[in-house]
Fold this sequence. Notes:
This protein is an alpha+beta fold.
Amino acid sequence: xxxxxxxxxxxxxDAHFANFTVKTDQPTVGGGxxxxxxxxxxxxxxxxxxxxxxxxxxxxxxxxxxxGIRIAQRMHSNPITGLVGKIELxxxxxxxxxxxxxxxxxxxxxQCAVKKHFENPPSFEITTKEVALA
Length: 134
């Protein structure tokens, strides 16, 4: 898979892949227009939305209603490094959601591919290449 990342102006940076464009920006205090999420916020949101796909799939396979189900994601920063040190995913279910499925719901969310990449990060290779302007 290849993504093309471009710099359309201001503090915006966009990613293009398949038939999609994912827009990012910086808040006004960071020199942006606050017109889109920051790249880091988008990155973090991929964890909760990925877990959500697994929760959705679990419920669909069992014919369980997803009405009222949501995931609250909380990030806790390490006060020394300033980096995210802990991420909590709380699967919120309505009172009528069967108790017997709650542990399995957690196990399904733990299968999230984004989470697995956090736990086993890829290596990075960053290079430059000269290309002619189109």
